Automatic annotation (TrEMBL):
Coiled coil: none
Name this polypeptide is given: Chloride channel protein
Gene3D superfamilies assigned to the protein according to its UniProt record, in alphabetical order: 3.10.580.20, 3.90.1280.20, Clc chloride channel
GO cellular component terms, semicolon-separated: early endosome; endosome membrane; Golgi apparatus; plasma membrane; synaptic vesicle
Residue stretches making up the CBS domain: 607-671, 704-761
Positions of transmembrane segments: 76-96, 161-183, 203-223, 235-251, 263-287, 340-360, 372-393, 448-468, 475-494, 522-547
Compartments in which it is found: Endosome membrane; Membrane
Topology in membrane: Multi-pass membrane protein
Sequence similarity: Belongs to the chloride channel (TC 2.A.49) family.
Keywords: Antiport, ATP-binding, CBS domain, Chloride, Endosome, Ion transport, Membrane, Nucleotide-binding, Repeat, Transmembrane, Transmembrane helix, Transport
A molecular-function term among this protein's GO annotations: antiporter activity
Length: 767
């Protein structure tokens, strides 16, 4: 077999003594068909490339056993890749959880048995803990105890305060320095960029190995520093980095950008799966929120990958409670229909806060981009950390990590709870029953409500400034904290109302004295869902994540009511979720599928060239020399050129990408004898005979797209926008009676949409 292979090195082969031209179809040129940084991929081209590859493998598999094995391996590689992504992401998430837990406790003290134990693990085996003070044991020393030998008095308080602030500053300084020095792309949540990448945009290095390493380390540091941010959004970025890196092990994903995006969609699902321990919620999140193209095959693979990741995380057991999440709850009382009113009120609050937050945060980020603030990212992070730590320490609800705060707010008070929020008057309670009746609140509950109200105001303000700084920062946990605080406050209020006024009309039918009618923890859960929905505009995935997160299956209806209300209210104030707003702020070319295009414009109103512009730059199929083509490439910045029959007829033949042209001409000059500036360039199938002594021509039909998308000049723009969205096009050519008139690129459409919405069209930076 091998003996019959023609030598592929000779690019000019003698056929009957006449030199045969090298056609680029015969021999693939390295680099042709790839994309430059900050460009959009051509989905149609990538999909047809993959179909050709698949056809070839299928036809070969009938020829030999080895080819059949190869075909089976090819089919199986996708599932193997999912398995690897699940294992890697689960392991990383477990490590991040354990490290963040330990470093958060390090701000308050250290364990003498071994400095690597966090507070909970340190006191786990101790025999000296009491039930009331279960987190005090001789093995765990606060910094004041270690340094000045006492835990009581003002000096001890000041010492602990100082150490808390110093550790917070150290952690955040390390985080921002590492991000700046090694991986600038590791900052922020990463979800807006991942949405853009999944829509076909290329940001080289955004999902690379350095970004993965630095994001993993700095995420632990940022969460431990006590800043108002979560690790959930960045975990989606971490999982997508794992997906992208592992894609390089398989040729089919390494060489095809569209196939790789299917894998990244599944990786986004894995990220949410390990962030919340919610595998199904993760799949729905990827489908509803981040993915652009989500075929059924990707759904099954996402499901499998999310399952593997959740299983891996459960094996690591980072929280030591055999649960995947920190805030698992069990509520004992069913909810009553009349409680839907406060639930809907929480939904309205979530929507209003979400819309306010998006506006304030975008205004702050724009200020950061346009003023001196953006030039000092390290200083900004340190100042925000200092303010956060100084204000947070005196209030026990802001001092603990946000996840623990949410956990306490979701908690249903039992008789043995030592939390301030559970300090009820238990005089009339019999010990035997599992359900505790509604009880009058003790003094500590009112103190806790004051502290929670202050914590609510503080969290609402500081999160606006924190999200978007140059450290990894997620938004899920801070948003949920705001909602959970508001919900818990409302829940306690409702509970006390029901206790003191059980004869009111609203409580009469279902809330008799001595019954357990209202669960404040449930209100916190509903509030958390409402605020998260208001900020991100998720609905289905949000409800599924919330009930997977808390195990509260019978509370789906309250969660649905709150999520839907918050989305309606937030949409009424501003159409965009936080991720879309950040995509627009950064000028990424993202065509939002949710936006309606309602204006009556035609393709000829948007296409270039406009009436005042110079004519369209085109290549002719047989009338240009290499020098003409190179001059056109250097004189323009377009990413591709239409090919026409001639300048007079302007009938369309095909479309060539600038990058492919440059690479092919450079390659031909190096490898093909006699190619000079005066060589003729042909895009035709057959080359006409050349005059004697003329240099050999260059045949470039192989790199031309013979079926470029065209619409006529009278096509309505809403149809053109739909074609771009559904097929993922980069450009579309405009014809009139078969003659080429102009071109519309994705960037032109985005600029047109921006102009219609009275926004600055120059904010769209990339094509």
């Amino acid at each position: 077999v091998w003996g019959n292979c023609p030598s592929s090195n000779a690019s000019m082969e003698e056929v009957n003594g006449v030199p045969k031209l090298m056609d680029l179809l015969d021999e693939p040129v390295p680099g042709v068909g790839t994309y430059e940084d900050f460009n959009t991929i051509d989905w149609v081209r990538e999909k047809s490339k993959d179909r050709d590859r698949h056809r070839e493998i299928t036809s070969k598999s009938k020829e030999s056993t080895w080819a059949l094995v190869n075909s089976v391996c090819d089919a199986f590689s996708g599932w193997l890749l999912m398995l690897l992504i699940g294992l890697m992401s689960g392991a990383l998430a477990g490590g991040i959880d354990i490290s963040a837990h330990w470093m958060t406790d390090l701000k308050e003290g250290v364990c003498l048995n071994g400095f690597w134990f966090n507070h909970e693990h340190c006191c786990w085996t101790s025999n000296e803990t009491t039930f009331q003070e279960r987190d005090k044991c001789p093995q765990w020393k606060s910094w004041a105890e270690l340094i000045i030998g006492t835990t009581e008095g003002p000096f001890a308080y000041i010492m602990n305060y100082l150490m808390y602030v110093c550790w917070a500053l150290l952690f955040s300084f390390l985080a921002v320095t590492l991000v700046r020095a090694f991986a600038p792309y590791a900052c922020g949540s990463g979800i807006p960029e991942i949405k853009t990448i999944l829509s076909g945009f290329i940001i080289r290095g955004y999902l690379g190995k350095w970004t993965l390493v630095i994001k993993t380390i700095t995420l632990v540091l940022a969460v431990s520093s006590g800043l108002s941010l979560g690790k959930e959004g960045p975990l989606v970025h971490v999982a997508c980095c794992c997906g992208n890196i592992l894609c390089h092990l398989f040729t089919k994903y390494r060489k095809n950008e569209a196939k790789r995006r299917e894998v990244l969609s599944a990786a986004a699902a894995v990220g949410v799966s390990v962030a919340f321990g919610a595998p199904i919620g993760g799949v729905l999140f990827s489908l509803e929120e981040v993915s652009y193209y989500f075929p059924l095959k990707t759904l099954w693979r996402s499901f499998f990958a999310a399952l593997v990741a959740a299983f891996t995380l459960r094996s690591i057991n980072p929280f030591g409670n055999s649960r995947l999440v920190l805030f698992y709850v069990e509520f004992h009382t069913p909810w009553h229909l009349l409680e839907l009113v406060p639930f809907i009120l929480l939904g309205i609050f979530g929507g209003i806060w979400g819309a306010f937050f998006i506006r304030a945060n975008i205004a702050w980020c724009r200020r950061r981009k346009t003023t001196w603030l953006g030039h000092y990212p390290v200083l900004e992070v340190l100042v925000v950390t200092a303010v956060t730590a100084v204000v947070a320490f005196p209030n026990s609800y802001t001092r603990t990590s946000t996840s623990e705060l949410i956990s306490e707010l979701f908690n249903d008070c039992g008789l043995l709870d030592s939390s301030k929020l559970c300090n009820y008057d238990n005089a009339n309670v019999t010990k035997s029953s599992n359900e505790l009746p509604d009880r009058p609140a003790g003094n500590d509950v009112y103190t806790a409500m004051w502290q929670l109200s202050l914590a609510l105001v503080f969290k609402m303000l500081i999160t606006v400034v924190t999200f978007g700084m140059k450290v990894p920062s997620g938004l899920f946990i801070p948003s949920m904290a705001v909602g959970a605080i508001a919900g818990r406050l409302l829940g306690i209020g409702m509970e006390q109302l029901a206790y003191y006024h059980h004869d009111w009309v609203i409580f009469r039918g279902w809330c008799s004295p001595g019954a357990d009618c209202i669960t404040p923890g449930l209100y916190a859960m509903v509030g958390a869902a409402a605020c998260l929905g208001g900020v991100t505009r998720m609905t289905v995935s949000l409800v599924v994540i919330m009930f997977e997160l808390t195990g509260g299956l019978e509370y789906i209806v309250p969660l649905m009511a709150a999520a839907m209300t918050s989305k309606w209210v937030a949409d009424a104030i501003g159409r965009e979720g936080i991720y879309e707003a950040h995509i627009r702020l950064n000028g990424y070319p993202f065509l939002e599928a949710k936006e309606e295009f309602s204006h009556k414009t035609l393709a000829m109103d948007v296409m270039r060239p406009r009436r005042s512009d110079p004519p369209l730059s085109v290549l002719t199929q047989d009338g240009m020399t290499v020098e003409d083509v190179e001059t056109m490439i250097t004189d323009t910045t377009y990413s591709g050129f239409p090919v026409v029959v001639s300048h007079e007829s302007q009938r369309l033949v095909g479309f060539v990408l600038r990058r492919d042209l440059t690479i092919s001409i450079d390659n031909a000059r190096q490898r093909q004898d006699g190619i000079v500036s005066t060589s003729r360039v042909f895009f035709t199938e057959y080359t006409p005979p050349q005059p004697p002594n003329s240099p050999p021509p260059l045949k470039l039909r192989g790199i031309m797209d013979l079926s470029p998308f065209t619409v006529t000049d009278h096509t309505a723009m809403d149809i053109v926008v739909d074609i771009f969205r559904k097929l993922g096009l980069r450009q579309c050519l405009i014809t009139h009676n078969g003659r080429l008139l102009g071109i519309i690129t994705k960037k032109d459409i985005l600029k047109h949409v921006a102009q219609i919405a009275n926004r600055d069209p120059d904010s769209i930076l990339f094509n």
